[in-house]
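> example.struct
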């Protein structure tokens, strides 16, 4: 799955979907897609990610208390 970073709009490939779906995980392991070489693995904060369309991540992926509101 690909997401976009908020600060510069770069595409990043999510390498661990369980982290993405887990509301208790604040970061997601992934790689930026830039240039011709495979980039190093990085951890991206969920608050800095959005879908390529510009839509934010679902609340149930980022807020452990999403059911309480």
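> example.seq
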């Amino acid at each position: 799955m690909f997401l976009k970073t908020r600060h510069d709009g770069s595409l990043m490939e999510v390498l661990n979907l369980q982290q993405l779906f887990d509301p208790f995980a604040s970061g997601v392991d992934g790689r930026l897609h830039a240039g011709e070489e495979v980039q190093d693995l990085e951890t991206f904060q969920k608050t800095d990610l959005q879908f390529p369309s510009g839509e934010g991540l679902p609340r149930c992926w980022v807020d452990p208390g999403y059911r309480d509101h």
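> remarks
The helical segments are 17-21, 59-62.
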